[in-house]
Amino acid sequence: HADTAMYEAKAAGKNTARFFQHEMESTVKSKLALENELRKAISENQFELLYQPQVCVNTGKMIGAEALVRWIHPENGMISPVLFIPSAEQSGLIHSLGEIVFRTACKELPNFKDIPRISVNISAKQFHAPDFVKKIECILNECDASPENLELELTESAMLADIEDTAVKMKKFRDMGFTFALDDFGTGYSSLTYLKKLPFDVLKIDRSFITDIIESPEHAGIATAVIALGKALNLSIVGEGVETADHLQFLKNEGANSAQGYYISRPISATDLIAWHNQRVAC
Ligand code: C2E
Ligand code: MG
Ligand code: MG
Ligand code: MG
Fold first, then answer.
1. What is the pTM of this model?
2. What sequence ranges are listed for the domain EAL (predicted)?
């Protein structure tokens, strides 16, 4: 009896192992397939930028827009960055993808001349590449663009990856005229010491803190504290993921500066962004 049990366990173990191996193989295969598709997409530039407006919570005036990349796949249509940025980061393709994103934003910049700032997301890996500053300078030259209206969005993981490199590079970019936003604030592990040391202009409160503020007093308490913290550090506060009038009102009450979210606008095409901006100015 014991023998049978042992045999069964072994067989099950073998099957489990085989199952996992199969799973792993197919994961590795699909990972590689995605990487290869991405590589092709980069060489054919199958990417587009959408822009999501940010408005002042008090006046409703547009203060800027965030560029958000989309992969326009020839067969599968529009693909979310959530599905391919991680693979781009792991494979190293983020460097060339990041260049495409930044170049596209620079090329479209002249159309946005009345929009105070356009922010571009930068991955940690991309930011810490030794030639990153030089590459950005090259693209600015190539597009005859000026960094005055450009903001770079970094996440906490980006600054924590190498605090010294972050400080040195941020200074270089600031000297050129860029401003900086700390994205998804509250989801990482940044200490206040780091926050004080690095020259950010804007703090973006992560959407996860805004989502539940109305239902959960705890979340509201955290959001309030994070906003107060940012204000104490003299940063301009943007609330992300504003989906309702209540969310907007909350940010206003707590003294945040601006808001971004579906309640204000979804991410839209460059053409629609210009129309959106003109309509706001008109009212
Ligand atoms: P993120 O930088 O925090 O961008 C905000 C994300 O929240 C965007 O998702 C936006 O569409 C979404 N969002 C905005 N308002 C709302 C709202 O009211 N409700 C909800 N549920 N979502 C809202 P998206 O465009 O899918 O981008 C996801 C993430 O992918 C970005 O988060 C950013 O981390 C990354 N990403 C996007 N574009 C780029 C890029 O060009 N380069 C890099 N490195 N990362 C990018
Ligand atoms: Mg962002
Ligand atoms: Mg964010
Ligand atoms: Mg995010």
1. 0.91
2. 31-281
